[in-house]
Amino acid sequence: MFLAWNEIKHSKLRYFLIIGVMALIAYLVFFLIGLAYGLAEDNRTAADKWQADAIVLTDEANVNMSMSMMPADSINDVSAAETAVLGQSPSVAQVNGRNDSLDKINVSIFGIEPDSFIAPNVIDGVMFADDYEAVVDNSMHLEDGVELGDLLYLAGVDKPVKVVGFTDNAKFSISPVLYTTLDTFRDVRFAKSGGIGVKNDIINAIIVRATDHDAANVTVSKSDLKVYPINTYINKLPGYQAQVLTFGLMIGFLVVIAAVVIGIFIYVFTLQKAAIFGVMKAQGISNGYISKAVIIQTLLLAVLGFGLGAGLTLLTALFLPAAVPFRIEALYFGGLFLILVFSSVLGALFSVRTVVKVDPLKAIS
Question: If you ran DSSP here, which 8-state letter would residue 62 be given?
């Protein structure tokens, strides 16, 4: 530790540049992970808010909630600890009837019962109480300027929906969620196909909390209904799995390449000091002492460099606009930090072999 730290203090510029290179590599990797994680979460945060164990859809819907339609009383055919009905439909909203195409917002309508367990938490305003009132994701406020009391004109429906509250972390398939009554959902869902109010008892899904949180404990008494574990349903969201796999492979390769580059970088850096090691060995300093100093020095550089990279990423996140899907997950960031530090120390361990083989006479000459 003494030798490692004193060498860093003696050659400040050299080690500052090394730490800078490590920090930039870490910054790139951390930032891309934040973007990939944020994009993946925007597909599913509304489903995660249910804290459910399973979902019941029609068998013919092929795990696609939009294609699943059943009578609302199908909830009586489901046996589980807690159940809640849900109507879901994509739509397009215009704020206060503005006609500019830039003001159109793609939204996902969730028709629910306001006292059910899938009702959202309200962070501003109140929960909707009547038809044509809605609680919306606060990204509509941050990104599109929607305020409490604004009127949202939904595609195909003449009567506007009034925004009475905001919730957080409520996106479904990247679109912000608009929570409203089941009747309002049906008006929006069937406005063009059958007329307002025609399909007055249709829902898309039944959300379930199972006994012992095990979807296997959920039973249905109708053959055309099927129970899916909630994670299975989320993985089947259109485009979600392909997106996660694509970004996962891309970041996995990036981490491996970064780890190899850093390992080689440390190895070459240690080789450049072979002459110094030869002099130290000629003075009687043991291989073990020098090797330990190399490893400790690498560990110090890695912690400082990668810590700086993580800090830059957190700082950048403070200035990103709300529209950028960037999220920080401490578990992923911590795991990546340890992987990068480990790869650096591994590169230093390969260097130790070189230190042991240094011949003092050849190094000095």
Answer: T
